[in-house]
Amino acid sequence: MKASHLKPDAYAAGCPTRQILDRIGDKWAVLILLLLRGEPMRFNQLRRAIEGISQKMLSQVLKSLERDGLLRRRAIATVPVTVEYSITPLGLTLAEAVDPLRDWAEQNLKEVLAAQRRYDAQRKALAA
Amino acid sequence: MKASHLKPDAYAAGCPTRQILDRIGDKWAVLILLLLRGEPMRFNQLRRAIEGISQKMLSQVLKSLERDGLLRRRAIATVPVTVEYSITPLGLTLAEAVDPLRDWAEQNLKEVLAAQRRYDAQRKALAA
DNA sequence: CCGTATCCGAGCCGATACTG
DNA sequence: CAGTATCGGCTCGGATACGG
């Protein structure tokens, strides 16, 4: 039985939705998962793929995702060392749950931006 | 045609996914949308429903959601003033896109927590 | 009841330098 | 190639007080 359509009375501090949202809030995390769904990737490969992420953040987020069981880290003893990150089955299910969100983003970003312009114009008019 | 299952080569800084994720990353925003889907609510009603949010944050996030066209603010001239927040059709579609994520959270939080315990135990063992 | 204004401390995050 | 370590600015966000 799904609870999706029941109206919640409140969101307690420790509820699952809050906890997972905190992780999704980590914007990089989701992007990494979506990328890894395609194929395993190496550290600097991810770094290049995600425009704007710093070495430090990437390292940090990868560690956190591994800790959560959403991806797997595999070090290969070459010289120099190669490290491969791949998504886990659990991570895959999360990525799938994020898909509708990405679709929504692509379809509705324009409308959101338009709403912002309307709002700002309105505020500007009031200020004058 | 849905783009969900195509492998992205990169996530540029301004892509829709990144932009929307930045907003979702605002953890409170999603919770508010999900709450308002049930029924319009007033300021302090929301405040009570979302455990732990400060007055400042609630005010801030509500303004941002209104700006994005995801909810509507309606002030009623009573004494003292009553303000009613309700979700817009656009906001409703976003809330629906978030549903799978909430379902995922409820179903998989346990497994994530278990993975964390395994990871931490492993690290502890190595440190010893 | 519904906010805004101000202060201020914690922690995020980028930059840089260094290691296996 | 794949990270760790350290420093410092800067933003986020809580607490408090006040106004419409």
From TrEMBL, chains A, B:
<keyword id="KW-0805">Transcription regulation</keyword>
<dbReference type="InterPro" id="IPR036388">
    <property type="entry name" value="WH-like_DNA-bd_sf"/>
</dbReference>
<keyword id="KW-0804">Transcription</keyword>
<feature type="domain" description="HTH hxlR-type">
    <location>
        <begin position="15"/>
        <end position="113"/>
    </location>
</feature>
<dbReference type="InterPro" id="IPR036390">
    <property type="entry name" value="WH_DNA-bd_sf"/>
</dbReference>
<dbReference type="InterPro" id="IPR002577">
    <property type="entry name" value="HTH_HxlR"/>
</dbReference>
<dbReference type="GO" id="GO:0006355">
    <property type="term" value="P:regulation of DNA-templated transcription"/>
</dbReference>
<protein>
    <submittedName>
        <fullName>HTH-type transcriptional regulator YybR</fullName>
    </submittedName>
</protein>
<dbReference type="Pfam" id="PF01638">
    <property type="entry name" value="HxlR"/>
</dbReference>
<dbReference type="GO" id="GO:0003677">
    <property type="term" value="F:DNA binding"/>
</dbReference>
<dbReference type="InterPro" id="IPR011991">
    <property type="entry name" value="ArsR-like_HTH"/>
</dbReference>
<keyword id="KW-0238">DNA-binding</keyword>
